[in-house]
Amino acid sequence: MSTTDVAPAVRALSRALLPEAEQLAVAMAARIRAEVAFYADETLVSAEALDASCCDNVRYVLGNLADQPVVQNEVPRATGNLRAESGVPYDSVLQAYRIGGRYIWELLVDRADDDARDTLLRAAADIWTVTDELSAQVTDAYRATLADRVRRDGQVRAALLSTLFDSPATDVDQLRQSASSLRLPQQGDLVVVSAECPAPGTEALAAIEETLRRGDVTTAWRLDIDHHDGIVVIRPRYRIDALLGDLTTAAAGRVGVSPVFGRIDEAHRALRQARLACAAGSPGQVDVCRYEDRPSATLLAAEPDLAQDVMRRTLGQILDLPPADRDTLLGTARIWFEAAGSTGEAATRLHLHRNSVRYRLRRLEELSGLDLGAPIDLAALHLALEAARIFELGQPDS
């Protein structure tokens, strides 16, 4: 707001009070310490520091009301930065500024003569606008600093996790130091989670760290271009099934989970297992896959060129069909496998007559040259179907 809008009586009163800024600030600080428990402790903000900050605030408000600004905007912003860096809770900062604003208002009312008091009451909005501007500058600086601190902390965590994830366990002391900094145990039941990012650098598991923290689950996470990776401590009160449930709720796509391992120096191998399990999931779907649950798919994911070759050699002409026909045959075969080779069960799942299922399977045999009664051919078809699923071909249809 423009100081030209301030009533002359308010401007004159503010000018008269400015020379007392230091004494007034001490009284303001005493009130804040009396009403805000955090400041009474003086652990993070000393009495001297609070007095100095209050003096700046008194001079800022009265100076602007007097049309004699003596404190630049950088000063309250510096206070906001300092409070965030010191770890002062935001609600305590905000409460202190509200108390300070009320103190200045009461001071002005108390010091005004009868004529000026009426004017002061009419000018209340103008006075509170100045105090609100002060609070807004402190708040903006606090939030900006806090965001920067979170980014820095995230970068540190990512660097520490990279020590555990990205190189074999050659420097045991360094691994132990990184694990200790991340508050991860040296030994215990651990798993690595790796989730495919929906977009470069975008979290794949929404708020997973906060969700698990609320459940008192020890974790450490990092986010890179393609994957959202983490180490999770499994405990008797939080078993693997509970983790899989939380991952499914948070996931945006494919997620891989390593086998449980016992030493932190095994995290490098576990990350590779989790990444392979992730790649073995179904693209475009929320699919939480444990490494040990889909051995064939995980093997194919480890060798994508081999998987392509297996798929092409086994399915042959089927892959050259129009997409709708191709996916109908592959989807039917996949449901038939899930039904343990029962034509009737597959027909029920597909909402078809069993003769329609038999027809599709015969056509698949004709085009591929496979014999679905031969165990070797069944094994080859299973591998080819898993490869096709990984490459997003042949989703089940009806």
Written description of the protein model:
The protein starts with 7 loop residues before the first helix and ends in an 8-residue tail after the last helix. The chain contains 18 helices and six strands. β2 and β3 (227-234) form a beta hairpin. Strands 1, 2, 3, 4, 5 and 6 form a six-stranded mixed beta sheet that branches. It is elongated. α6 runs antiparallel to α8 (124-165). The chain is of the alpha+beta class and 398 residues long. 63% of the residues lie in helices and 9% in strands. It has helices at 8-17, 21-35, 37-41, 47-65, 74-86, 90-111, 114-122, 124-165, 172-181, 208-214, 240-250, 267-279, 295-302, 304-315, 323-338, 343-350, 354-368, 375-390, and strands spanning 187-196, 219-223, 227-234, 254-257, 261-263, 287-290.
Report the radius of gyration as a whole number of Å: 33 Å
According to DSSP, the number of beta strands is 6
Major sheet description: 6 strands, mixed
Provide mean pLDDT, rounded: 88
The shape, in one word, is elongated
Q: Tell me the structural class.
A: alpha+beta
Portion in helices: 55-70%
How many DSSP helices? Answer: 18
Uncertain regions spanning at least 5 consecutive residues: none
Q: Could you list some keywords that capture this structure?
A:
single chain; alpha+beta
Secondary structure blueprint with pairings:
Blueprint: H1 8-17, H2 21-35, H3 37-41, H4 47-65, H5 74-86, H6 90-111, H7 114-122, H8 124-165, H9 172-181, E1 187-196, H10 208-214, E2 219-223, E3 227-234, H11 240-250, E4 254-257, E5 261-263, H12 267-279, E6 287-290, H13 295-302, H14 304-315, H15 323-338, H16 343-350, H17 354-368, H18 375-390
Helix pairs in contact: 2-4, 2-6, 4-8, 5-8, 6-8, 8-9, 13-18, 14-18, 15-16, 15-17, 16-17
